[in-house]
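Just wondering, can you check both lines?
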Amino acid sequence: MYNVTSKKAEEFISDSEIRDTMEYAASNRNNREVAKQILEKARAFKGISHREAAVLLECDQPDIIEEIYELAREIKRRFYGNRIVMFAPLYLSNYCVNGCVYCPYHAKNKTIRRKKLSQEEIRQEVIALQDMGHKRLALEAGEHPLQNPIEYILESIKTIYSIKHKNGAIRRVNINIAATTVENYRKLKEAGIGTYILFQETYNKTNYEALHPTGPKKDYAYHTEAMDRAMEGGIDDVGIGVLFGLETYKYDFIGLLMHAEHLEATFGVGPHTISVPRLCMADDIDTADFENCVPDEIFHRIVAIIRIAVPYTGMIISTRESAKSREKVLELGISQISGGSRTSVGGYVNEESEEENSSQFDLSDRRTLDEIVGWLLDLDHIPSFCTACYREGRTGDRFMSLLKNGQIANCCLPNALLTLKEYLKDYASEETRQKGEAMIKRLIPSIPNEKARANAVKYLDAIENGERDFRF
């Protein structure tokens, strides 16, 4: 039975509710009146239910689809402006005991080169990332109780935060590691992590168990209930996602929104972020072996409708996607992207050859961080390296309340411009610097609060003269 506030995975992600929703959406796919009513409700900027979102996803009428896209653009502009937060993944170890059939880390893979970074190697990787200009990392590691215990993750976090190189510093460490206990989530919170990220992969329990035949990850309920334990452990910023292509996109789209609704109903705050990765090629993984891969047109619609359904949740796209695909979804709802990424263990210091591959997946967007920053500026997006909300305690329901009432705008725009200024001074090419300086000059007058605007000008002058790390 479906129960949005239940602590049991099979009740808050109810298979029967998902299938009933799919049937309802299919029966209303040509019902213009219902679609129009849903869109009208969405224009209140308070979101829509998983069932309403499923109807929009099912609709194939061109004018309705265009309305969906235009509303997604409007919501994106209203809550996130043209700011795009930058981050990079840092892979600590690819040792893994699981048997996930879609991931090259699976225990039976004998062709991938296994590697685990020492604390000194982590230090060198972080310096390389700092020298690019990154301020925010997402730590990644395979699940292995001996090679990658929680103590190793905690020590790595401490190492990362300790490294100051020239003007570089990592100001926020997000964590993407396997489901764990409430006690371990408390330890991660005490270590100063930002967001805890965990992808469900698929919400279809039967398919999930087939895709995870061995290892601790095969426990569907334990994995699906991880965000509840994380929040019980004090982590109020959590990030969810599915790997589109493992299951029919309609099923996982509905499950994803049901998970967001569950967190909102149970803890008073939904997910801080939603990620939308698509299955892609990797060592010993061929996408041709999977029948549910999602085409671009459907993928873009998924992004747009998620933005409409959960207007207050950040959305993340990685370098799995091509530059062309990323450009499209930026306008439809994406608010965070990775740049200059490496998905191999130790790949920022040493570019590994194919024969020495340790990557989790093949990159589609291989541009440098500076090239991506310049590209975003050309598209009139503000590349932001901001971590202020986390460090000022604006997390969980405090962040969401500021976002919902619009007050966060008094912080976000000036913080984005200040961190962009730091990047331009310390790391940018001359071409990127000129474009960025022109944007800052153009946008400073648009900071709505007069006092904030005056302080922003003062802080920008201080950055020009060598000072760093101002924030609102």
